[in-house]
Design brief:
By secondary structure, this protein is an alpha/beta fold. It is globular. It binds pyridoxal-5'-phosphate. The site of pyridoxal-5'-phosphate (PLP) has 16 residues, from helix 10. Pathway: Amino-acid biosynthesis; L-lysine biosynthesis via DAP pathway; L-lysine from DL-2,6-diaminopimelate: step 1/1.
Length: 476
């Protein structure tokens, strides 16, 4: 067998379709003696039997190791500059009480972006001082809740919000801890970044001067924050994108923000104590992705921050970062059961046709919306066994009434994959459960955490009763 004409350029024909390539899987996922996929020694068939499919399986050891790796690497790199780094795990990537506890255990803080996420943080017992709250449209109730919980930082996104928060806090005799989210004109995605002055997006305060007033929304917000008795201005924040491999975008954003801090020092005589450089570190979803180790990113960023501060004669602010995907993404795989399998002939660019195998699984866009939302690529393996059959060009699709309901667009799977086999899709820790839905009245899957050879439920799956629970009409 050879490569399919339908394969995208990045996808190579596998030497062994049963192999688990390095960066993509949690560290304790292996093939057992009988060829079955195992996590921390537990065969996936045992997990499927106990918890059903689809099932999110998260490696607790891998999560903790990745969280600690970010914290330790950035602390080490920034130690001599600003005494260390505060790492805020971006809760929006995947959050539940158990995850919040792991985050806190490993010495990280937690970044939230809604009242609901704050409720989880509270339930997990995270102290307010270790919480941040983001969002471009926080409600008064959310701002009040943040003040109730004495949040370490509220990341203010606009001038109207700054005024609103200042008034709420002052009215309660409080001062809100505030970071200002700026748009530094750097947009990064994977291997490129775009540097602009103006940004056409809903988040943040622009650093580019307004042609009519001559001053930037960012500069106006700093002046307003410093003058507001309800606001304690801690520093600046930026988040330039997601799934980024190229460090140049982070470095340029850091330089622009530090230059702005130097300007604030000059104009207001204030050296803001904190700078948050956001999240967005890329992970490997397929063989095409080449993420960099946290230590390498940390060193590169520390070098830029250190040199820029020296150049600008600025005290190095306390640095914080907000990784989400890079911590939780690789820790998790989704276990599905294969159902209907069919092969279709597809026209090739050369004018011929080639077969594509459609492998339907018992979940889909309701548990992983990223392929539909972002054209995201994933990979998959046959998990319940190995196969010596040739690999064929396959597409793993869900069971939803939607032709775009694709889980893995392009993958070589053994030609004997059949109804009843288990398939595993790695890299589903971030933005999968978090974005899950009940489309087609399909119940959201449970999440199971595995550690030291034992599995336990951390989020139970929905039942049919759950699906009907909020339908208020009396049954017939
Ligand atoms: C989404 C987001 C993050 C986390 O992004 P990842 O790509 O998951 O690292 C961090 N900060 C802010 C403000 C975000 O919106």
């Amino acid at each position: 067998m050879t490569a399919s004409e339908l394969a995208p350029a990045w996808l190579s024909y596998p030497e062994d379709a049963n192999s688990l390539s390095g960066d993509i899987w949690a560290r304790d996922v292996t093939r057992g003696g009988n060829g079955e996929l195992e996590i921390s020694g537990i065969p996936v068939s045992a997990l499927a039997k106990e918890y059903g499919t689809p099932l999110f399986v998260v490696s607790e050891a891998d999560f903790r190791a990745r969280a600690r790796d970010f914290k330790d690497s950035f602390d080490a790199a920034f130690e001599s500059l600003c005494g260390g780094v505060d790492v805020y795990y971006a809760g929006k990537s995947f959050l539940c009480t158990e995850i919040a506890r792991w985050v806190a255990d490993e010495g990280l803080r937690l970044d939230t972006c809604s009242g609901g996420e704050l409720a989880v943080a509270k339930r997990a017992g995270i102290p307010g001082a270790h919480l941040g709250l983001h969002g471009n449209n926080k409600s008064d109730a959310e701002l009040n809740r943040a003040l109730d919980m004495e949040l370490g930082r509220i990341v203010v996104d606009s001038l109207p919000e700054l005024d609103r928060l200042g008034a709420i806090a002052a009215g309660r005799g409080l001062r809100a801890n505030v970071m200002l989210r700026l748009t530094p004109g750097v947009h990064a995605h994977t291997h490129e970044f775009i540097a602009t002055a103006h940004e056409d997006q809903k988040f943040g305060l622009s650093m580019a001067p307004d042609p009519e007033t001559g001053s930037s929304p960012a500069a106006d917000a700093v002046a307003a924050a410093l003058a507001n008795p309800g606001i304690r201005l801690l520093g600046l924040h930026s988040h330039i994108g997601s799934q980024i491999f190229d460090p140049a975008g982070f470095e340029l954003a850091a330089r622009r923000l530090l230059a702005f801090m130097a300007e604030i020092k000059q104009v207001h005589g204030v050296e803001l104590p904190e700078l948050d450089l956001g999240g967005g570190y890329g992970i490997a979803y397929t063989e095409a992705d080449t993420p960099r180790p946290a230590a390498e990113i940390a060193k590169a960023m520390a070098a830029v921050v250190g040199a820029t501060c020296t150049e600008l004669d600025l005290a190095v602010p306390r640095i914080s970062i907000e990784p989400g995907r890079a911590i939780v993404g690789p820790t998790t795989f989704t276990l599905y059961r294969a159902g209907t399998i069919k092969t279709v002939r597809v026209d090739t660019p050369e004018g011929g046709s080639a077969p594509r195998r459609y492998v339907s699984v018992d979940g889909g866009m309701s548990d992983n919306a990223r392929p539909v939302l972002y054209d995201a690529d994933y990979t998959a393996v046959l998990a319940s066994r190995t196969s010596v059959h040739d690999a064929v060009m396959s597409r793993v699709v869900g069971k939803h009434c939607e032709s775009g309901d694709i889980v893995v667009r392009d993958v070589y799977l053994p030609s004997d994959v059949d109804h009843g086999d288990l398939l595993a899709v790695p890299g589903t820790g971030a933005y999968c459960w978090a974005l899950s839905s009940n489309y087609n009245y399909i119940a959201r899957p449970p999440v199971v955490a595995v550690r030291n050879g034992a599995a336990r439920l951390i989020i139970r799956g929905e039942t049919e009763d759950d699906l009907l629970a909020r339908d208020v009409s009396e049954p017939a």
